[in-house]
């Protein structure tokens, strides 16, 4: 499987609800360097696992829609939107945030991530720019 296929398969999995996905896809020495509206943080393997455990408790569902997926050897860049259904309103899915992440793969696992995110802009123009393309 190519690095691009690997990253695509990870984002299309149910990694927020199945902790074994994290074990299967992330390198044990994984680091995610994340710039968000709350500031900069570095997450290690267990921090990422805990983050998705919190997400699974907070949301009824969590879905990633990839708009761009580019690869250069062991580096894969993905641009995507996270859509959620809240526990309070499980019938309505809404965009939560937009992300761009550059992953470096090592030993066929996600090793180093460099991510930037922002709250989803729900304007039609913004959502169209994040619409799924052929990836």
TrEMBL record:
<protein>
    <submittedName>
        <fullName>SnoaL-like protein</fullName>
    </submittedName>
</protein>
<feature type="domain" description="SnoaL-like">
    <location>
        <begin position="7"/>
        <end position="111"/>
    </location>
</feature>
<dbReference type="InterPro" id="IPR037401">
    <property type="entry name" value="SnoaL-like"/>
</dbReference>
<dbReference type="InterPro" id="IPR032710">
    <property type="entry name" value="NTF2-like_dom_sf"/>
</dbReference>
<dbReference type="Pfam" id="PF12680">
    <property type="entry name" value="SnoaL_2"/>
</dbReference>
